[in-house]
Amino acid sequence: MDMRRRLIAGNWKMNGDRESLAELDGIAAAAKAAPDVDVVICPPFTLIERAVARQPSLIIGGQDCHSGISGPYTGCISAGMLKEAGATLAIVGHSERRAAQHETDPEVKGKAEAAIAAGLAAIVCVGESEAERDAGKAAERVETQLRGSLPVAGGDALVVAYEPIWAVGTGRTPSMQDIGAVHGLIRGVLRELLGAERAEAIRILYGGSITAANIAEVLDVPNVDGVLVGGASLTAAAFAPIIEAAA
Ligand code: PGA
């Protein structure tokens, strides 16, 4: 009995231009053929409005948002601005932002709260570094990030993504046992923080070097409800087979 719809999310990061939006046509066609799967694309902010206009059947999201509503925050985008552009979701706490923008757990929590308050779904990312995994501290790190970054509100608008930093963009992935262990741990922490019923409704994604070649075995792992995909979401040729595998 699985009440959680699968969620396949693509994060374009700082890639793509207007021409790349043509990729959305093939991605939307794959999504249409997989009606039980939620398909998300998070393009750069500047393409959100066009992406929504081109393929309204896709879920279009932002890659980050600010925790505030408005104010003197040069270069930042609020959740309300994303919503106005037509986005219905925001990724927050991606490891690339935690590293390069020095985002802390409380900041990520504030962003997730702002997204949910604006009516967006929030994908909250957590994941250990390679040094932490090697030191046997992956579980501890993920649990600390979860406790610090998760908003208490949000219902099933809240999504968690487990993305081991060393697996992002590297072509390396953890073993299926290791993914299962961390996803099981995340489900347990969700139960404790949010109660059993809510915890069951929240989708937990795996992210890090997902391709058409490894998607099937990853989706087979207990408590993996979908994936967050970087490189392999940039073209329909790479992303459509991932959507098809989830159908
Ligand atoms: P990748 O990126 O699929 O290119 O490893 C994953 C992510 O950063 O979400």
Structure notes:
The chain has 247 residues and is an alpha/beta fold. It contains eleven helices and eight strands. It has helices spanning 23-32, 48-54, 79-85, 95-100, 105-117, 130-134, 138-149, 176-194, 196-201, 215-219, 236-246; strands spanning 6-11, 37-42, 59-62, 89-92, 121-126, 158-162, 203-207, 226-229. The chain has an eight-stranded parallel β-barrel with strand order 1-2-3-4-5-6-7-8, surrounded by seven helices. The protein is globular, with a radius of gyration of 17 Å. The protein starts with 5 loop residues before the first strand and ends with a helix. The relative contact order is 0.17. The model has no long low-confidence stretch (mean pLDDT 97). The structure holds 2-phosphoglycolic acid.
Task: Identify the strand order in the major beta sheet.
Answer: 1-2-3-4-5-6-7-8
Global morphology? globular
What's the mean pLDDT score? 97
Kindly name the structural category.
alpha/beta
Distance between the termini: 16 Å
Order of helices and strands: EHEHEHEHHEHHEHHEHEH
> Could you tell me which ligands this complex binds, including any ions or cofactors?
2-phosphoglycolic acid
Binned strand content: 15-25%
The biggest beta sheet reads: 8 strands, parallel, barrel
The level of helicity is 40-55%
Number of helical segments with 4 or more residues: 11
